[in-house]
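protien #1 (seq + structre)
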Amino acid sequence: MQLYAITDRALLAGGPAGMEAALATQVERWVTGGVDWVQLREKDLPRPALCSLLQQLARVTRQAGSRTRLLVNGLAPEDAHACGADGVHLPGGASVAAVASALRAAGLATVSCHTLGELHAARDGGATAVLWAPVFGKTLHGKPVQDGTGLRTLGEACAAAGPMPVFALGGVSVERAASCMAAGAAGVAGIRLFHGEGWQRLVGTHPG
């Protein structure tokens, strides 16, 4: 099972002045704990601050022996590469051309997909992987805002993706991870899933 952690520094202790340091510490835990992918997703940061934070995290993920790949959400692929990212994450609706262009400029590209049409575009553009969401629904501030696609549709997405890995995202918990793998997912992705301690129970399970 591959693990894909998405950052949210607002969930970490330390207050505004210490958020970046707290995030670097959290990412180091993921790297040493066996997380395969980290997506830097801090959309409130202006470009210079996001680039600076990306450079800091790149030093963390490139520790000796680390296999963790660092992606960034919200930067142009050229900027992401220049600031030390291994690749970028693209939003839902990315065209075949946009995915292919991102790959050429940044090296790796994962894509958010919510429909089979979006998944087909990501696949045809050569995406490294897709995040299929929301499998079990989406919440905002603890309140449900979107129904889940369900495990059956996740399975259909995995079949349509072919060899391209699909990560299950949206309401995924440690307890639900096995059912996502049974549906054909290569791994699980999440924000809150990886900001606690439970994710460590997933390391080394369901190789794939």
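ok now protien #2
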Amino acid sequence: MKERFARIPWWLVAIVLLGSWLLVSALTSADYRVIFSAVSHGLGVTLSVSLIAYAASILLGLCLGLMRASHARAAREISTFYIELVRGLPMLVILYYIAFVGAPALAQALNALLAPLIRAGLVGSIEPRSFDFATRAVIALTLGYAAFIAEIFRAGIESVDRGQTEAAEALGMSHWQVMHRIVLPQAVRNVLPALGNEFVAIIKDSSLVSALGVQDITQLGKVYAASTFKFFETYNAVAFFYLCLTVSLSLLVRRLEARMKRSKK
């Protein structure tokens, strides 16, 4: 009995009780029902921005991680330059830079590339406003998190026993064949829990897109609170949505880590 009592995750019990209180308040209070209804419209935006940015950052991070582990010095230098540069910048700065500097620069570059077609009247010129702020936010989160995910993949690649790669190369396999068939399957398995933690982090950082006016959970909560002055109730509802997302994902990551530990034994 004492052992069962000691194994109870009291932090989780406290969070469940807090979430239950907010849920009961939403069901019994007219104010909370209105707030939950207003804020919930941003849930789809939060999830879509997070999922798209996460998927794109996985792909870009994998490419950067492979470049960082490459034998080619130029590839290593380029990837290291990008990773160290981006990891040294706050995510909000990256968001502003992409939104107000990167998007106009991209529009100018595309116009210069399509100049002959534009002069011929085949296509119209591209304006910076052609890229909505949600798209700019996804690009910013992708570029920011790709640097961190690249380091995760690099660590996973380096965790594979060097003897396996040497044996494969001795059998005549090329570097990319070794990566594709031997190293990456093991590396990805080793870094899955860390990638799960990055997904939790990107959901939390998706709240930064509210700085651009994107209608996510945080932005809708901010607008509602500013118009009604019900800051306590509104941000309770906002916190409830984020807690439901992040705590559930954290529990999945913990379960995945436990399963992987059991499989290694």
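The domain at 2-264 is CATH 1.10.3720.10 (MetI-like fold).
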